Amino acid sequence: MIWLLSDPHGTMDFPWMHEYLRRAGDDDWLFILGDVCLSFEKTEENRAFTKWFLSLEKNVAFLDGNHENFAYLDSFPEEEWRGGKVHRLTPHIVHMERGYVFTLGGRSFFACGGCRSSAKWAEMGLYYEGEEPTQEECARGRENLTAHGMRVDYVLTHKYETDGPKATETLLALTRFIEENVTYSRWYYGHNHRSRAADEKHVCVYDTPVFLP
């Protein structure tokens, strides 16, 4: 079974994550849709969270959000995994890079993390270069979707990008490309800190898990 959660923001106080760790078997996976915040803040709490997260012995795959230490994630070795590229953090934990299609349990997942933060985060000193998907990463996404016949089972992003003053233009263009060209069953995303279905195909994920049997 695949569990979907999002936006733990460097806290161990995320009850359903502990429930996953208690219940998960060897074939189960937790997908986190961004803002894990590993080595994000120079605080004892964040250091403790990072150490705890990297000690997990259950399967975890995560997208990056906008609140990540991208240089830290990039410091881990890159490898091929399930049809795409990941950073391998531990034997059990991978960071899914942007613009790839991954296949797990006979199902295909297009993954693209990142989006734009508001200016207040930079003012607080909590901004790391690389939060917005690049033209190259989004072009890679279009190429991989085309190679998969414009069809995947699920789309996973940190944010469902819509037009507006805070929009990430590259991510907005990729969103439009997917909506106009790609057949998919559900689009799961985080960022908004709420668990609700926007409609039958678009589901915002937060601290209440979505289960994919």
Structure summary:
This protein has 213 residues and is of the alpha/beta class.
Query: Which fold name is given in CATH as the topology?
Result: Purple Acid Phosphatase, chain A, domain 2
- Distinct helical segment count: 6
Summarize the amount of helix as a percent range: 25-40%
What is the gyration radius calculated from CA atoms? Answer: 16 Å
Structural class: alpha/beta
| Poorly predicted sequence stretches spanning 5 or more consecutive residues | none
The CATH class is identified as Alpha Beta
Question: Describe it for me?
Answer:
Helices cover 26% and strands 24% of the residues. By secondary structure, the protein is an alpha/beta fold. The chain has one domain: Purple Acid Phosphatase, chain A, domain 2 (4-Layer Sandwich), CATH 3.60.21. Helix 5 runs parallel beside helix 6 (169-181).
Which key terms come to mind for this protein?
6 helices, single chain, 213 residues
Q: Layout of SSEs?
A:
Elements: E1 2-5, H1 15-23, E2 29-32, H2 44-54, E3 60-62, H3 70-74, E4 78-81, E5 84-88, E6 93-96, E7 100-104, E8 107-112, H4 119-123, H5 135-147, E9 154-157, H6 169-181, E10 186-189, E11 196-197, E12 202-204, E13 210-212
Parallel strand pairs: 1-2, 2-3, 3-6, 8-9, 9-10, 10-12
Antiparallel strand pairs: 1-13, 4-5, 5-6, 7-8, 11-12
